[in-house]
Amino acid sequence: MASGMVRVSWRRAALAMAFAVGLTFGVGVASAQVGLGEVLETQNIRNEMAGGGRDERGANQANDQAADAAPPADGADGDLPAVARTGIDKWDDTHSIFRQREASLNWLKMLPVALLLLVWVRSADWINRDAQIFNLNHNAWNPAIVAPFVIAFVVMLLIPNYVIGIILLSLAWLVPFVAYAVHHNKSVEPHQSVFTGSWFRHQVSEAGALVGLKIGSEKKADYLRGPEVDLVAQGGDERTNQANLLTARQSPGYVHVKELVADMVTRGSARVLLDYSAEVVTARHMIDGVWHNGEPRDRESGDVMLAVMKQLANLNVSERRKKQDGEFGATYQNKKYACELTSQGVKTGERVIVTLHGSTKQSGIKTLEQLGMREKLRDQWLEIMNADRGLVVMSAMPEGGLTTMFDVALLDCDRLMRDFVAIEDAAAPETEIENVPASFYDAAKGDSPSQLIPSLSRKYPNVWVVRDFVDAETAKLLMEEIDLDRLVVTSCHAQDAAEACLRMLQKKTPHKEFARELIGVLNTRLIRKLCTGCRVEYEATPALLKKLGIPAGKVTKFYRVPKGEEIEKPCKVCSGLGYRGRTAIFELLQPDDQFRQKLLKEPKIDVLRKAARAAGMRTLQEEGILLVAKGVTSLQELQRVLSGS
């Protein structure tokens, strides 16, 4: 859904209703105040006249009383009717007209208006959400449902006839609402239509279920069963993808694929390995970088599930021996995932790997502190990233969080006061980052970033973002850009910062220029966090503290995963794994003159590691021990991570 889109909420509904009631009440009070003002003005005029006419009225009253007491004149008929007289009211008025003495509000007339307002708000909210879900141009329909009602509401307050006003207000709500419902039903599949007979039966059935009544309704389409996962066919053109999706929905395996995706998201599984044997399909999930056994399934359901995944990825469903790679999409819990599918025939049957890829934006991580970087280290890193010139290298082990770290590092640095350009492979575009426009080359055709650098250089960018140097020519041109006082940001796979320097030299980066222009190397390692719901504390002995280099008395206890006999019942937070989620540890190398000399004259891993520590770099081990001392992770997990397993 597009950012900034208008959403109508119940909170806004309440505010809108309060505004309407307040406005109507204000008009009523104002009208009452005008009426009372006229009465007071009339009374003041009469009081002024009362001074001159009081004697006359007194004389008249005396004469009237005398006339009433006198007997009728001779010849008068006592049966004649008396002349009708008008009484004198408290305002000294001589006629009887009903006057409203207090401000009032007709609640019987307000009730239909309030009900219409609530119905309109609910309708506008549904139209807004529905139009976004089905891509029915919510930017056009939102004003179409809001503007007529607001105008009609104002008109209703101005015209004196209540009946005409309420009719106009009703039409202002009903006409756009019906128009959208008709448009919706024409634009979606039959089972997604609204306000039809089957729709009403389903609503009645759902309402009855809330109070324990079983009311029959129209049967759901089979592919709608299971978790609320929307699958998207990919790998072909639009027509082919649509045909593949319709075909996949006819299979019972469609629901199995939905269940698989939902299960992976719930477990926090980034990858699932399915091994097909003669009778059973075993599953293993990679959760937080570690493989865990999953529940096996029978071969029949596994086959139809695999057929649906291949259909959605536009692969050959009948091919079970050759290697096939494809991708399909999925949306679950308002998050989109790219589902990478790889299948390969093996001796026992077939092996399938399904990998879920989300985006950094969806994770909500925008700063390196959210990834686990200490504040002081982050300040040092941002100083490097905001430099005017130099070469910056980010590194991690394969599948060790390099992409996420790179994205967040760009999100966290200054992108407003500097001009960025990025060069990416068209076949593997990275997450789009604001103010970092990307240009693409086609590696499949033999292209490289070096072909784009000359033309992009004429835009005078301040920062170059090239995640992979690819070839020697690209490295040479980018090092020349640094001579023009520009910053170059790149990356590579490496176990630590020292190894990253050697990896860059392996990419044919000019040796002398690399040693001179390198200003920072950041390396990261992902480490699992202990589950706070079931972790077990134990005493930090003096011997252990000394071994870890922690001063005595600084830490009194560490934490670990509970042992089997300590578990009363499986933890609901981590599903009994002992860990939940991951964080990162970092080491930041800021080369000094001694390190540059070693890099130029003696580029060996042990020599560079020693020189890096001499330059003041805190190692991954030292950063990890801090997390152990804080109870974030366990000593056993740190040992596993640093061993590279």
Automatic annotation (TrEMBL):
Region (Disordered): 49-78
Pfam families: T2SSE
GO (cellular component) term, any one: plasma membrane
InterPro entries: P-loop_NTPase (IPR027417), T2SS/T4SS_dom (IPR001482)
SUPFAM superfamilies for this protein: P-loop containing nucleoside triphosphate hydrolases (SSF52540)
Keyword flag Ubl conjugation: no
Top-level taxon in the UniProt lineage: Bacteria
Keyword Coiled coil attributed: no
Stretches assigned to the Bacterial type II secretion system protein E domain: 257-640
Protein name per the record: Type II secretion system protein E
Naturally occurring in which organism (per UniProt): Botrimarina mediterranea
